[in-house]
Specification:
CATH architecture of the largest domain: Beta Barrel
CATH class of the largest domain: Mainly Beta
Radius of gyration: 21 Å
Strand content: 35-45%
Distance between the termini: 45 Å
Oligomer: single chain
Largest sheet: 6 strands, antiparallel, barrel
Shape: globular
């Protein structure tokens, strides 16, 4: 099976969209099964995204001021789903069609908890939308198709597991695929039935699991979108309590949480947290992983609470530092229309 997937992946950039999808359907189908052609070719729903971010944006230094990636049309009115960091703090965005035409777009939503972003083109795209699938039932060792600005490429789901991001982000049951797709940001993960199963977020070196070297991609499961869709359309973000944000970037190394850097002007910097500090406890409870660290912080309450941290700095031993948490949406310089 892996041989077939790798062969198709190598050929993906040379195949037309419909041919690549048809090949995937044949590979994924059980022996003797009859495959059916989707009502509309889902690959026609793939678009590009371009966004301009001002130099004054909080994320300009780390994510750049000109961002490009992929997106997917998900409704008949042309609503485009992408990965949120492409449009985070953008002052201008556009949707790029497969024929090269560009259409200005309004940013409808950016959701930090899931990572999803939504855009609405200023004029109709006349593009058939893709159907949203059931990513909860997507199992490991399932063949899928990744599609974005670089065209379609076959891949396999190699892992389903929790993902803890260094930017105070925790995603349950993330989808990891291999081989890696170069233009992963906002790329579509498509199932054999032609439905959308995920949106591309990252390239990783441990797609199979921690400590196991295999390059691949991480996708945000599409099932995370359905429960918050009404919130995104109404408020531009998911509802519910606002998690406390500390403004630090961590890395998990051998059972320790290291601080790689802190957000300028953020809560951690204000409290005196420094690069290379090690977080060993939250409110007196030991932490040994990023996921554990985030959960213990978020369990204390909503944004604005004081978060007691036990920090080890160099050879000076442990010290207690209280961080006054914040709402990261208020820290980011977002478009006031959303």
């Amino acid at each position: 099976m892996w041989t077939e997937v790798r062969a198709l992946a190598r050929a993906g950039s040379r195949l037309a969209f419909p041919c690549c999808l048809a090949a995937l359907l044949v590979i994924a189908a059980p022996a003797g099964a009859q495959t059916t052609t989707p009502k509309a070719n889902p690959l026609n729903a793939i678009v590009g995204i371009k966004a301009e971010i001002p130099p004054s944006a909080r994320t300009a230094r780390t994510l750049g001021t000109e961002r490009e990636g992929g997106g997917v049309v998900i409704d008949a009115d042309g609503l485009v789903l992408t990965i949120g960091y492409l449009i985070l703090e953008a002052v201008q965005a556009e949707v790029v069609l497969q024929n090269g035409d560009s259409v200005p777009a309004e940013i409808v939503a950016y959701d930090y908890d899931t990572g999803f972003g939504l855009l609405r083109p200023a004029t109709p795209l006349n593009v058939p939308p893709i159907e949203l699938g059931d990513s909860d039932s997507l199992a490991e060792q399932t063949q899928v198709l990744v599609a974005g600005p670089d065209g379609p490429s076959a891949a396999m789901v190699v892992s389903r597991r929790e993902f803890a991001g260094y930017w105070e982000y925790l995603l349950p049951n993330a989808i990891f695929t291999a081989p890696p797709y170069r233009s992963f940001g906002g790329a579509a993960l498509i199932g054999a039935d032609g439905s959308l199963l995920g949106i591309g977020s990252l390239i990783v070196g441990d797609a199979v699991g921690p400590g196991r070297s295999l390059p691949g991609n991480m996708f945000v499961p599409i099932s995370r979108l359905k429960p918050i869709m009404s919130d995104l359309m109404r408020d531009g973000r998911s509802g519910g309590p606002v998690k406390p944000w500390l403004g630090l970037f961590g890395e998990e190394i051998r059972g320790h949480v290291f601080i790689n850097r802190v957000s300028p002007g953020g809560p951690a910097e204000a409290a005196g947290i420094l690069q290379d500090d090690i977080v060993v406890a939250v409110s007196g409870e030991p932490v040994a992983s990023l996921a554990e660290f985030y959960r213990k912080v978020w369990a204390l309450g909503e944004a604005g609470i004081d978060v007691p941290l036990t920090i080890v700095r160099g050879t000076s031993g442990a010290r207690e530092i209280s961080v006054k948490s914040a709402d990261r949406y208020q820290y980011l310089r977002l478009n006031p229309t959303y």
